[in-house]
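input
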Amino acid sequence: MTTSRTGTAKWKNLRRVVLYRAKAQGLARCPECRVELDYKVGLTPASAEVDHIVAHAFGGQDVIENCRVICRKCNQSLGGKTNRKPLDIEPLKTSREW
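output
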């Protein structure tokens, strides 16, 4: 039997850290729809949820740099779509020649 990736201790700890940092930085509104985020009550349309910037289906990793906080309604409208395109991310510019 397979288990859910989001049920692992690794994901739960990452989720907790991402939500804590967003709240500490003063993120009060969903960056997608501007609704006021609810950090206290879960499973409501305005509940704060962790979303992957680059979708897991497109190779996005479970790391802090690939996560953001949006409302549950926006997260559910984005999640599970196979046609969701990854963001165009520019490669990091360095002063070194590789």
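quick obs: Residues 5-78 form one domain.
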